[in-house]
Design brief:
Residues 50-223 form the Carbohydrate kinase FGGY N-terminal domain. There is one protein chain. The protein has 466 residues and is an alpha+beta fold. It has 2 domains: 2-211, ATPase, nucleotide binding domain (Nucleotidyltransferase, domain 5, 2-Layer Sandwich); 216-466, ATPase, nucleotide binding domain (Nucleotidyltransferase, domain 5). The chain contains 19 helices and 19 strands. Helix 10 (217-223) crosses helix 17 (409-421), helix 13 (296-305) packs across helix 15 (345-371) and helix 15 crosses helix 16. It is globular. The two termini are 43 Å apart. Bound molecules: beta-L-fructofuranose. Beta-L-fructofuranose (LFR) is lined by residues 58-60, 78, 216-218, 239-241, 243, 277.
């Protein structure tokens, strides 16, 4: 994505899109990170003479380097089964209450901490001298300089969200050597310049700066939430996941917050992204993969034509995390909760969208209550901003207006942080103002039919949650 930024204008153009296809090896589900890097290089070449480069990506996963700085094999996928049962064992080392009080991170199987505990006896881990989170790994290949970007580091479950430094006592209790991590970098910091062989590939003679952005994609997306200064808002960052929450000045580390499995991740300028991970459009992506269907528009039209709220599943249930057999698993969840089993693709799609809207509602309500931070509007950014049905259902379910857009929020947030580092835009409010003035947004008013959503919420709460 190439962004152009002036104090009055913000424009984003897609120059290259490539698939991110993990591969199942005998040892487990792995990311094809070389294909990703090759795609990045092709994209940079297609982008032409840019003034700065910034890398963001998904959280928690990492590559391990040996003493020579060489990658020790493909990074494990956070959906890999190697972390099964690890969280429960880890709680015997550090009780859940203390771990949450120190790190503020949700209890999820894929947290970096759990992945490290699952991997630590492997030959690969024994040989490892450096750990780089995936966007930091790509940045390292581009520049030769290793760093640990702090918004992404906040998802490891090894960081203290109050200080933005490592929770050294937690790492020590688990026997994790924090020396594996490179020094911290903050959004806006220089991250080096493109290495000579990269420049040669791009046909650039001049040094090209790489700028640290909020390298966790969700942190970048929150930067581009087009909220007005002083507005009381929640956001939903959509894509494979729905990340639903608030931007706060300080973490919420209470017992109630832990019980509700909210996470405190760091955002730009020391803000806290207080949010819940909801399985998100992964449910639909996996159905589409099972059906060998790539026309989401057709499915959404079918879903809009079938009656709503017939069956709902718990979209934040970790049972939906692994890949495979998604239509059957959704059908099973409906059956086991005594609800009608969706029988057509349209019905299954509708079940997914209704369930997501309901999960959005629950997270928006609980976040406000747990953080004592009421909101007046919900911003939907990311891919689902283009999904009018899901936006409408989310507005109806939340009983709040939804403002949808931009769909490419993560890329815009990435570009804006680079632009700020290069003196082109001002503070967070100025960045958001620029997004609001320049990007197409659509507003959905709630229909007022709260009772049907209340009833559906009771169905999910009563039957599919422990
Ligand atoms: C979204 C995201 C989420 C994170 C998940 C796994 O792309 O980064 O924020 O929880 O992927 O890394």
């Amino acid at each position: 994505m190439v962004g152009s930024v002036t104090p009055d204008d913000l424009d984003l153009a897609e120059v290259l899109r490539f698939a991110n296809r993990p591969a199942r090896l005998p040892e487990g589900l792995r990311w094809d990170v070389l294909a990703l890097y090759a795609g990045v290089l092709d994209g940079l070449r297609a982008a032409g003479p840019v003034a700065s480069v910034g890398i963001d990506g998904w959280a928690v996963d990492y590559g391990l380097l040996d003493a020579d700085g060489h990658l020790l094999g493909p990074p494990a996928h956070y959906r890999d089964a190697r972390t099964e049962g690890v969280a429960a064992r880890a709680r015997r080392t550090v009780p859940a209450e203390r771990l949450y009080a120190r790190t503020g991170v949700q209890d999820a199987p894929f947290n970096t901490l759990h992945q490290l505990l699952a991997a630590r006896d492997s030959a690969q881990f024994t040989a490892a001298r450096r750990l780089l989170l995936v966007p930091d790994l790509i940045t390292y290949w581009l520049t030769g300089e290793a760093g640990t970007e702090v918004t992404n580091a906040s998802t490891t479950q090894l960081l203290d969200p109050r200080t933005g430094r490592w929770a050294a006592d937690v790492a020590e209790a688990f026997g994790i050597d924090l020396g594996l991590f490179a020094p911290f970098r903050h959004p806006g910091d220089p991250a080096g310049t493109l290495l000579p062989h990269v420049r040669e590939h791009l046909g650039r003679a001049d040094p090209v700066p790489v700028t640290t952005v909020a390298s966790h994609d969700t942190a970048s997306a929150v930067v581009a939430v087009p909220a007005r200064d002083g507005e009381r808002f929640a956001y939903i960052c959509t894509g494979t996941w729905s990340l639903v929450g608030l931007e706060l000045d300080a973490p919420v580390l209470t017992a109630a917050s832990r019980a509700a499995n909210f996470t405190n991740e760091l955002g730009l300028d020391g803000t806290v992204r207080y949010l819940r991970n909801i399985t998100g459009l992964w449910l639909l992506q996996e159905c589409m993969r099972a059906w060998a269907e790539d026309d989401v528009g057709a499915l959404l039209r079918e879903a809009a034509a079938v009656p709503g709220l017939r069956s709902v599943v718990d979209a934040s249930d970790p049972a939906f995390l692994p890949p495979g057999r998604m239509p059957e698993r959704i059908a099973d969840a409906c059956r086991s909760t005594g609800q009608p089993v969706p029988s057509t693709r349209g019905e299954t799609t509708r079940c997914v969208l209704d369930s997501l809207a309901l999960a959005h509602r629950r997270a928006v309500e609980e976040a406000q209550r747990l953080a004592d931070h009421p909101v007046d509007v919900v911003y939907v950014v990311g891919g689902a901003a283009r999904n009018a049905l899901l936006c409408r259902l989310t507005a109806d379910a939340c009983g709040l207006p939804v403002v949808a857009g931009p769909a490419e929020a993560a890329a815009l947030g990435n570009v804006l942080v680079q632009a700020r580092a290069h003196g082109l835009v001002g503070d967070r409010a100025a960045m958001r103002g620029l997004v609001a003035r320049t990007q197409p947004l659509r507003r959905y008013e709630p229909s007022g039919d709260g009772a049907a959503w209340d009833a559906a919420a009771r169905r999910v709460a009563g039957r599919t949650r422990p």
